[in-house]
Design goal:
Chain A: It is found in: Lysosome membrane. Chain A: One of its GO terms (molecular function) is zinc ion binding. Chain A: InterPro entries: MIOS/Sea4, MIOS_a-sol, WD40/YVTN_repeat-like_dom_sf, WD40_repeat_dom_sf, WD40_rpt, Zn_ribbon_mio. Chain A: One of its GO terms (cellular component) is lysosomal membrane. The complex is a heterodimer of chains A (about 900) and B (about 290). Chain A is an alpha+beta fold and about 900 residues long. Chain A has 30 helices and 36 strands. Chain A is about 30% helix and about 20% strand. In chain A, helix 13 (about 545-555) runs antiparallel to helix 14 (about 565-575) and helix 15 (about 580-590) runs antiparallel to helix 16 (about 595-605). Chain B is α+β, with helices and mostly antiparallel strands. The chains are: A alpha+beta (about 900), B alpha+beta (about 290). The interface between A and B is large, with 41 and 34 residues.
């Protein structure tokens, strides 16, 4: 009769057994494929599992609903609700000497016949079986039977005006008197016992959900709703209940039963089953009619801060366990996320495990974790050098270390920042030197108004816009042919000069001042750093072959010097400009075997035709600045921009920070930095670098703002709060627009005016809070009353002094803070003078007093105030990990 | 107690015995193919005189006008009493008896004509749409009245009207037939459809073993009220039967048809009911 609607029930105690009920009951055992393969009659459920039919029971026709007895003994006792409202106890696959013998066959008959819609065993008091029936005009729809009750004597049956057919009277197993009768003149469509109290029964009645309390059956709690089908309690969260109506699922919280806490998106077809996953919190599976998918709703309750009511997030997804339309499904009691699905027709069964969502998270330090089901995986990259070195290489570790060494904060000797960063990264070295030259050039212009270097247009912007833009505007280029210094031989190498080229050379760091093309200072500094080859190359490019040889000799003689440099010097000294000489021929071929790129390009320069210096310009292991400087000297006005453009593009694509020299801090520079950040994730360098840019466009670029915000978040995540404060101050100096507006004002209790606002309207700048002792200079005159109404300002709850009075115990040190450089103690003393308030109880006082109070107390210092102020501050108990 | 005014506008019609053939198609559609029609309320009662069909306006459209179809002009609204689960379970009496005192008697006093339809699940009290304001004002004191609009229940209040009249006492007829009352799960309808069609349209014998739900085995006897066709305007007919039954705590089904009213009472109570009604009929004569 109900053959069209199959259902599945897992055994409450045997993890490998389940019952399928359609027109009859079939008990199956599930097992691995291998072990059951040999036997005939096994049904494959999945690649690994198969089911064996153990028993069939067709004693109970007209089945409408089935419920499995929840206790261990008797083992396989089922209650079957029939179309006429009778509830029959039956069993499957049990030998008849078992404990349930006297129970099997027992029938529970309502006074008036109508369909039994639902059955529910009480999970604790397992003698109680609740049956939900259709409406009858004078009968109850929820009947709770006691299966252990003695059979009712026939006399009482007569008294109850029950007229049973003669057949029924013959059988001695009929119970007609329910233990409880509930829901008069109503229909019951679904039932479940509440897990929070076994005396409470939740029923989906005709138009409402009702909670019946068996201790007081005359009262019920109810809420009017249409969603009354399939009520089911979340096994992990006993106050959460799901019910449905047509295509919509409603989630209820029994503690706030007036309306659903959630309604899930409506499905086009009516739902047939809704079930909470017993092995996973907050996972609800739903099935609609004529569908081959099961829809899963993952309800996550993340703990939210106090008073912050946020909607729980729901993740919805669908799974398709089999091709055919699904008749019903049942979650396995203990196997994680596993269910058996039965098709709507033919009783085709599928064993199916819902794959858990994977959630992935990077930590702000070095680790990568992901979670799948109950497993948490930490990702460790395999490498020959071991984990330690990998962690060291990790950009997060690097940035953390650099943040601690105050990387980026040296604003005077900007180039020193690369040393703060560890001094190992050539790109960072180049970057910070570029920035140093840019800043020193622009600074020099600003201050000294260097007449020699007056260029058209805005000098400042030209300097920041990089060599690429500088050489574009080049004009008035002069050509000169110079002699090799120390010799009177004329070279046929043309060298180009212009103001822009000169500026570019300065930005490259080759020359330091004016049009002075003397590189002697630069050579000396290179010698100091033992960069012999580079110094020799620079000397050579300045056509001073003798100096180059001299440098190489020096290098060979220096401590740990390479004696081969002498050999190179010898080779160099044999230079001849004879086009077809043996020297030229040998050098141009053998130079490629030189390991040092600078030595290599020296010979490339000497053996090239004038104007064709590809051997120098495209030697990628030579620093960009040197190649650019070389290009500025020896390429003509047509070649130079072409070369610079090409090099810029190359740098941008590679995200090579040396390219900042070419792009400057322009949009081009941001593009380059973007590919650098994409490659390395180093938002720290990106933030500091872009902050150095001239105020304006680059800082407004959303990418730059994103790097800065991410770096700040990173510092917060590391609990480097002092570092972040330093960074914010640094940022505020360089980018005044980033300073947040004051959002909190202290208003007077009496007149309501902001005391800080009324101060700032006074034309005399720099007063502000200082007059209230807030800025920590207690020697200055103090205001302890409101400037608006002259009423006293609030008092500190501990010392009872008005706001504006310094903390008494630091008066001694207060005298000595005339010094500009405040010691740590003084800084703390300043902070101690600040006023602070609890946002909850509005009590407060000097920050120092408050801090020391809450070191020993949890409650507010004001008597009779029980506010736990410090605990409300979620970050109050965290300790910064950078105690600078 | 709650009184629900259901969201149906009903017509009461009658099909003559020999005219049934003309209506076989719409009736089968209305009974068995519920997803093919928008009719939400349908009742068919066969009596020796005719077939009474009560159905909403959507269903009424299916019935073609014919000389065999008689239609009562008024629109009827069904009322339904809901006990609201409150503990009024003292009385075992079923159906009309329970609401006799609270609904039927007051309406009779207010000269409101009612058309009763008892079913296995509940009792519908049909009142004419024009009487609704009187009904509401009469029953307002005892009930929370809700009007259903599109599935939602809306509370109703009304201004008062009043009038009163002495009812006529109608003769009763108590045939020897035994009746059986049962309900069917809608899902089982397809499986017994052919049998039901046979019973309805082609033969008159109802097969004994057809319905599994007849288990309670209760048997009922019928009391037919009215010697002449009763019409639809007279009030107090239901009240004069249900009142004494309620007094004696006898449960009953009450089914109005186009011509007459019928009350079903339990077989074991038929003697006392007969006595009581006989006594009632003699009383006005003597007093």
């Amino acid at each position: 009769m109900s053959g069209s609607k199959p259902d599945i029930l897992w055994s409450p105690h045997h993890p490998d057994r389940y019952v399928i009920c359609d027109s009859e009951l079939g008990l199956y055992r599930i097992g691995p494929v291998g072990s059951t393969e040999a036997k005939a009659g096994t049904l494959p459920l999945s690649e690994e599992t198969a089911a064996t039919l153990l028993a069939i029971n067709s004693d109970t026709p007209y089945m409408k609903c089935v419920a499995w007895y929840p206790k261990h003994e008797p083992e396989c006792l089922l209650a079957v609700g029939q179309a006429n409202g009778r509830v029959v106890l039956t069993s499957l696959g049990q030998s008849h000497n078992s404990a349930c013998k006297e129970l099997v066959g027992k029938e529970f008959v309502p006074k008036h016949a109508r369909q039994c819609n639902t059955l529910a065993w009480n999970p604790v008091d397992s003698n109680l079986l609740a049956a939900g029936l259709d409406k009858h005009r004078a009968d109850f729809s929820v009947l709770i039977w006691d299966i252990s009750s003695k059979l009712s004597p026939e006399t009482s049956v007569a008294a109850e005006k029950i007229r049973l057919s003669s057949v029924d009277l013959d059988s001695s197993t009929v119970v007609t008197k329910p233990l409880y009768e509930l829901g008069q003149n109503d229909a019951c469509l679904s039932l479940c016992w509440l897990l929070r109290d076994p005396k409470l029964l939740l029923a989906g009645m005709h138009r409402n959900l009702a909670i019946f309390d068996l201790r007081n059956t005359s009262q019920k709690t109810f809420v009017n709703t249409k969603a009354i089908q399939g009520v089911t309690v979340d096994p992990h969260f006993h106050d959460r209940v799901a019910s449905f109506f047509e295509g919509q699922v409603a989630i209820w919280d029994l503690r706030k039963f007036e309306k659903p806490v959630l309604t899930l998106t409506e499905q086009p077809k009516p739902l047939t089953k809704v079930a909470w996953c017993p092995t996973r919190t907050g996972l609800l599976a739903t099935l609609t009619r004529d569908s081959n998918i099961i829809r899963l709703y993952d309800m996550q309750h993340t703990p939210t801060p106090i008073g912050d009511e946020t909607e729980p997030t729901i993740i919805e997804r669908s799974v398709q366990p089999c091709e055919s339309q699904i008749g019903s499904f049942a979650w396995h009691q203990s196997s994680q996320n596993r269910m058996v699905v039965v098709s709507a027709t033919n009783r085709v069964m599928t064993d199916f495990t819902v794959f858990e969502r994977i959630s992935l998270a990077w930590s702000s330090t070095t680790s990568l974790m992901w979670a799948c089901g109950r497993h948490l995986y930490e990702c460790v990259e395999d490498s020959a050098e071991g984990v330690e070195s990998l962690i060291e290489k990790d950009i997060a570790t690097k940035m953390r270390e650099r943040a601690q060494s105050r990387y980026g904060h040296d604003t005077v000797q900007v180039w020193r920042n690369h040393l703060l960063a560890g001094g190992k990264d050539p790109q960072l070295k180049s970057l910070w030197h570029d920035l140093f030259y840019i800043l020193s050039v622009s600074h020099m212009k600003q201050c000294a108004e260097d007449m020699e270097l007056k260029l058209q247009g805005n000098v400042q912007s030209v300097v920041y816009s990089g060599i690429k833009n500088i050489v574009k505007t080049t004009s008035g280029t002069t050509e000169s042919r110079r002699c090799w210094s120390g010799s009177d031989r004329q070279t046929d190498v043309p060298r180009y000069h212009s103001e822009e080229r000169c500026l570019a050379l300065r930005l490259c760091g080759w020359i330091s001042r004016g049009t002075d093309t003397d590189v002697e200072n630069f050579l000396r500094s290179l010698e100091q750093e033992h960069e012999w080859e580079r110094a020799a190359a620079v000397a050579l490019f300045n056509l001073d072959i003798r100096r180059a040889i001299q440098i190489l000799n020096k290098g060979a003689m220096a401590e740990k010097g390479d004696l081969n440099l002498n050999v190179v010097a010898m080779a160099l000294s044999g230079y001849t400009d004879e086009k077809s000489s043996l020297w030229r021929e040998m050098c141009s071929s053998l130079r490629l075997q030189l390991k040092n790129p600078y030595l290599c390009i020296m010979f490339a320069f000497l053996t090239s035709e004038p104007g064709a210096y590809d051997g120098v310009l495209y030697e990628s292991s030579v620093a960009v600045r040197d190649r650019v400087a070389f290009a500025c000297m020896f390429l003509n006005d047509a070649q130079l921009p072409r070369y610079i453009d090409r090099l810029t593009l190359e740098m941008k694509e590679a995200g090579n920070l040396e390219g900042i020299l070419l792009t400057g801090l322009t949009k081009d520079g941001v593009d380059l930095m973007e590919s650098y950040v994409d490659r390395t994730g180093d938002v720290q360098t990106a933030s500091f670098c872009m902050l150095k840019g001239s105020p304006g466009e680059v800082l407004k670029d959303p990418r730059v703002q994103c790097w800065i915000e991410n770096y700040r978040n990173l510092l917060d995540a590391w609990r480097f709060w002092h570092k972040r404060a330093e960074f914010d101050i640094h940022r505020g100096k360089l980018d005044p627009s980033s300073k947040p507006l004051a959002q909190v004002f202290v208003s007077c209790n009496f007149c309501g005016k902001s005391i800080s606002y009324s101060c700032s309207t006074i034309p005399h700048q720099g007063r502000g809070f200082s007059q209230y002792g807030v800025s920590g200079s207690p020697t200055k005159s103090k205001v302890t009353s409101c400037p608006g109404c002259r009423k006293p300002l609030p008092r500190c709850a501990l010392c009872l002094m008005n706001m504006g009075t310094p903390v008494s115990n630091c008066q001694g040190t207060g005298k000595s803070d005339e010094k500009v450089d405040l010691t740590r103690e003084n800084k703390l003393a300043q902070f101690n003078n600040w006023f602070t308030w609890c946002h909850n109880c509005r009590h407060g006082g000097h920050a120092g007093h408050m801090l020391s109070w809450f070191r020993d107390h949890t409650e507010c210092p004001v008597s009779a105030c029980t506010c736990k102020c410090m605990q409300l501050d979620t970050t109050g108990n965290l300790v910064p990990s950078d105690s600078s | 107690m709650d009184l629900h005014i259901l969201d149906h506008r009903l017509r009461v019609t009658s099909i003559s015995k020999n005219g049934l053939v003309n209506f076989t198609h719409p009736l089968i559609k209305l009974i068995f193919l519920r997803n093919r029609t928008r009719c939400k309320f349908f009742s068919l009662t066969e009596t020796p005189e005719n077939y009474t069909v009560v159905l909403d306006e959507e269903g009424f459209k299916e019935l073609r006008p014919s000389e065999h179809l008689q239609v009562e002009s008024a629109i009827w609204l069904p009322l339904n009493v809901v006990s609201n689960g409150s503990a009024s379970s003292s009385s075992q009496a079923v159906g009309v008896t329970k609401i006799a005192k609270s609904v039927i008697a007051p309406l009779a006093q207010q000269h409101v004509s009612v058309f009763m339809l008892s079913t296995y699940q509940t009792d519908f009290i049909l009142v004419k749409e024009k009487d609704l304001s009187v009904v509401v004002s009469t029953l307002e004191e005892e009930f929370n009245i809700y009007k259903e609009e599109g599935g939602e229940s809306v509370p109703v209040h009304c201004q008062d009207v009043s009038n009163a009249i002495q009812p006529t006492v109608h003769p009763v007829l108590i045939p020897k037939n035994q009746f059986c009352v049962m309900s069917l799960d809608p899902d089982t309808l397809p499986s017994i459809a052919t049998t039901l069609i046979d019973v309805l349209f082609y033969s008159s014998r109802f097969p004994a073993d057809l319905l599994f739900t007849s288990s309670s085995g209760e048997l009922w006897r019928m009391v037919r009220i009215g010697g002449q066709p009763l019409g639809f305007d007279e009030c107090g007919i239901v009240a004069q039967i249900s009142q004494p039954l309620a007094d004696s705590d006898i449960s009953a089904y009450y089914i109005s048809t186009f011509s007459f009213d019928h009350a079903l009472v339990p077989e074991e109570d038929i003697v006392s009911v007969t006595d009581m009604l006989q006594h009632q009929r003699n009383e006005p004569a003597t007093s």
